């Protein structure tokens, strides 16, 4: 079951409202309301009212269809902000030396879509899942003898075997460091 609510002509710019909307997208309704209640942004209160309206729309649609929907099972499936009108809503603010600065009053439209269906993998969930995985060493790099662990950016470590002793060379390393590594490898 899905429910939708929208608030139109909210005061404030769409860019500032998107900062608040991005925090609640993909969250459980209870978590979203808690986030909105304690967010110190001007757009948080009208967006909270919109989410509460979507919850009411979901329960109303469920009653009409004789379906039992628990508001705690709802989650924010989609939430977006569109720009509202600001053309022909200009104001003038006095400026020094008899000049005038023009101000525009920005408005935005917020739309919230709630769902009680199983939570799908949103793009934000996919990004969070890939951050936890470690990168595997490429087979070509492993065959060439390049070690991927513990190296700094731009410094490839290669190993080569000369007369039974391993010789490690680092790209861009000074000659003294190479000589010291050769002596320790021979001992």
Q: How would you describe this protein?
A:
The protein is of the alpha+beta class and 187 residues long. It has two domains: 2-119, Ribosomal Protein L22, Chain A (Alpha-Beta Complex); 139-186, no CATH class. Helix content is 37%, strand content 28%. It is built from six helices and eight strands; from the N terminus they run βαααββββααβββα. It has helices spanning 14-24, 29-37, 44-64, 123-132, 139-144, 175-186; strands at 2-11, 75-83, 90-94, 100-104, 107-115, 146-147, 157-162, 165-170. It has a three-stranded antiparallel β-sheet with strand order 1-5-2, with helices on one face. A hairpin with a 2-residue loop joins strand 7 and strand 8. Helix 2 runs antiparallel to helix 3. The radius of gyration is 29 Å and the shape is flat. The relative contact order is 0.15. The model has no long low-confidence stretch (mean pLDDT 78).
**CATH topology (fold) name of the largest domain:** Ribosomal Protein L22, Chain A
Second-tier CATH architecture of the largest domain = Alpha-Beta Complex
How much of the sequence lies in strands comes to: 25-35%
Instruction: Estimate the helix proportion, in percent.
Output: 25-40%
Which class do the helix and strand fractions yield? alpha+beta
Mean pLDDT: 78
Number of helices: 6
Into how many domains do the coordinates divide? Answer: 2
Look at the structure and give the CATH class of the largest domain. Alpha Beta
SSE ordering: EHHHEEEEHHEEEH
Largest sheet descriptor:
3 strands, antiparallel
Q: What is the CATH H-level superfamily of the largest domain?
A: Ribosomal protein L22/L17
Strand order within the widest beta sheet: 1-5-2
Shape descriptor: flat
Low-confidence runs of at least 5 consecutive residues? none
What is the first-to-last residue Cα distance? 73 Å
Total strand segments: 8
Rg over CA atoms, rounded to whole Å, is 29 Å
């Amino acid at each position: 079951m899905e429910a939708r609510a929208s608030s139109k002509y909210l005061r404030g710019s769409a860019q500032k409202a998107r900062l608040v909307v991005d925090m609640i997208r993909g969250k459980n309704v209870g978590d979203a309301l808690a986030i909105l209640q304690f967010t110190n942004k001007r757009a948080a209160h009208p967006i909270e009212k919109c989410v509460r309206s979507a919850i009411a729309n979901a329960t109303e649609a469920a009653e009409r269809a004789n379906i039992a929907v628990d508001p705690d099972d709802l989650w924010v499936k989609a939430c977006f902000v569109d720009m509202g009108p600001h053309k022909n809503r200009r104001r003038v603010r006095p400026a020094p030396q008899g000049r005038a600065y023009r101000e525009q009053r920005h408005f935005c439209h917020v739309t919230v879509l709630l769902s009680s269906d199983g939570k799908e993998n949103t793009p934000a969930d996919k990004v969070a899942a890939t951050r936890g995985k470690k990168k595997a060493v490429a087979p070509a790099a492993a065959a060439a003898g390049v070690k991927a662990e513990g190296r700094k950016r731009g410094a490839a470590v290669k190993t080569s075997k000369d007369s039974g002793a391993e010789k490690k060379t680092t790209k861009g390393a000074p000659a003294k460091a190479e000589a010291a590594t050769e002596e320790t490898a021979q001992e």
